[in-house]
Design a protein that fits this description.
The chain has 3 helices and 6 strands; from the N terminus they run ββββααββα. With about 170 residues, the chain is an alpha+beta fold. The protein has a single domain, classed as GTP Cyclohydrolase I, domain 2 (2-Layer Sandwich), CATH 3.30.1130.10.
Length: about 170
């Protein structure tokens, strides 16, 4: 049984436990749902690894495949994971460049959660011999999280990985 009470955001959830969930194949930010963060007294990272992300090239309509990494330091809200799964699935027929997808995801999560800090990294499989791995981040302005965001941006991928699995 959950240690959470329904007053702590569980009443607002419509997708978790719903056996009649519809999977939208068109971009659907409205499916995102949040729950209360019960640990606002500390900083901690929440990380989602989404290895089955797909979208479409806006010009050719060809599919693009990626692992999407989403990490954030919550404030008052957490994203409910089933709603995040359905949201990411909604990009299936969405035509946008890789860089746009990661920024759209980050912007939608900022709008939903107002996190202290967030970063989104899309590691796309190669097409035409080139992989594109856009990364973006945000730290709440005027706070130490803005400084963290600037530091992580300036030091991101300073030691690039060896690509041997794609």
């Amino acid at each position: 049984m959950s240690g959470r009470s329904h007053e702590q955001g569980l009443n607002d959830l419509t997708l978790l436990g719903n056996q009649n969930t519809q999977y939208s194949t068109e971009y659907a930010p409205e499916v995102l749902e949040a729950v209360d963060n019960l640990h606002t007294n500390r900083d901690y990272f929440v990380k989602f690894n989404c290895p089955e992300f797909t979208s479409l090239c806006p010009i050719t309509g060809q599919p693009d495949f990626a692992t999407m990494y989403i990490s954030f330091i919550p404030d008052k809200k957490l994203v409910e994971s089933k709603s995040l799964k359905l949201y990411l699935f909604s990009f299936r027929n969405h035509g946008d460049f890789h860089e746009d997808c990661v920024n759209i995801i980050m912007n939608d999560l900022i709008k939903l959660l107002d996190p202290r800090y967030i970063e989104v990294w899309g590691k796309f499989t190669p097409r035409g011999g080139i992989s594109i791995d856009p990364w973006c981040n945000y730290g709440r302005p005027g706070t130490k999280y803005e400084e963290i965001a600037n530091y992580r941006l300036m030091n991101h991928d300073m030691n690039p990985e060896t690509i041997d699995n794609r």
